[in-house]
Each structure stands twice: as C-alpha cells, then as structure tokens.
UniProtKB/TrEMBL annotation:
<keyword id="KW-0288">FMN</keyword>
<dbReference type="Pfam" id="PF03358">
    <property type="entry name" value="FMN_red"/>
</dbReference>
<dbReference type="InterPro" id="IPR051796">
    <property type="entry name" value="ISF_SsuE-like"/>
</dbReference>
<feature type="domain" description="NADPH-dependent FMN reductase-like">
    <location>
        <begin position="1"/>
        <end position="120"/>
    </location>
</feature>
<protein>
    <submittedName>
        <fullName>Flavodoxin family protein</fullName>
    </submittedName>
</protein>
<dbReference type="InterPro" id="IPR029039">
    <property type="entry name" value="Flavoprotein-like_sf"/>
</dbReference>
<keyword id="KW-0285">Flavoprotein</keyword>
<dbReference type="InterPro" id="IPR005025">
    <property type="entry name" value="FMN_Rdtase-like_dom"/>
</dbReference>
C-alpha cells in the first residue's frame, strides 16, 4: 500500500514537516511512503478552463499531472501544513485546487491525515477551521478523514523539542 506525504511548508525543516516526518516514519511499517515537497514544485494555479473534465488531465504541463497520478495510486494521503491566516499554506491550497482534474472515484476510500502547526493555542479558531475544511472535503469526495493533529509550535517553541507532539505524530496512524 502507498501513502503520499504532501509537505506544504516553504521551510524544509519547518515544524509541520518535522511532525509529518515522525508520522511517515511510523507509517513505514504499513505503507510505502511517497514524499512530495510542494516548495520544490513549480505548480501553476488552476485556470478554470475545464479542459481536464474532458481529457482527465490538466492542460498545464507543470508536474501536477504526475502528482495526480501518484495521488490516485495512493491508499492514504497526509497533508502537512503550517497555519497561515487561519488556514493552510498557499502551496497546499494550490495543490488541492489542482486536484480538480481528478474524477470523484479517484478520491473514494482514501484515508486522509492532516497535520497543522501554528503559533496560536490549540483552542484557537484556525485549528477548528482547518479540521472542518478537511472534514467537508472528505464528505464531498468520499475519502475517510482518518486523523488530524493540530500542534502549537513556532520559532521560540519548535516541535523538534516537543516530545509529546512527536509522540502524537508517531501514533496518529495507529489511531485510524
């Protein structure tokens, strides 16, 4: 079985990436891990031309067609994102928007995990908004919302020094 890890932080050693790496390491006993670093991709935004709805691939040749093929082959997906302005990173939002080229059956039955790191306290509204967004995406697409890990972390309290958060990331996959 395959899991697609989608790291969406512009910082390669960022808090969300650090947590997701711990999650991926724990998942290696169940899944073959395919790591995607969106900061290394040069994806263009969707043009809403709907060409993909008749050709089942995007007209833009920027690497997203290959990422969609990997997405389709995966039984599980993990989105790791920093929290920006009460939501996911621009890189992740762009990736999600470009998944529009897929058929609805390409989503059905996949397990979706989300890891989100921001500096606000865990009772902050942004974590609820992110969770609700992905719960609705799963309901719409037929994916299973398998796990969510919001973590408060920043430059002054890096997740690499938060053993509890790292433990939660390593055990998130076993809670599904």
């Amino acid at each position: 079985m395959q899991m697609m890890m989608v790291y969406s932080s512009p910082r390669t050693q960022g808090n969300s990436t650090t947590l997701a790496k711990a999650f991926a390491q724990a998942g290696q006993s169940t899944y073959t891990i395919n790591e995607v670093y969106l900061q290394n991709e040069e994806l263009q935004s969707c043009r809403a031309c709907k060409w993909c709805k008749t050709h089942f691939r995007c007209l833009l040749e920027d690497g997203m067609n290959a990422l969609c093929a990997s997405f389709k082959e995966s039984e599980a997906i993990c989105f790791a994102t920093p929290v920006y302005w009460w939501g996911v990173s621009a890189q992740l939002k762009l990736f999600i928007d470009r998944l529009y080229q897929l058929r609805m059956e390409d989503f059905k039955g996949k397990e979706l995990y989300v890891i989100a790191c921001g500096e606000d306290t865990l009772d902050g509204v942004q974590y609820r908004l992110i969770r609700e967004q992905f719960e609705q995406i799963c309901e719409y697409t037929g994916m299973k919302f398998a796990g969510y890990l919001p973590v408060c972390a920043g430059d002054d309290n890096p997740v690499s020094e938060n053993e509890n958060a790292l433990h939660q990331a390593r055990t998130l996959i076993t809670k599904a």
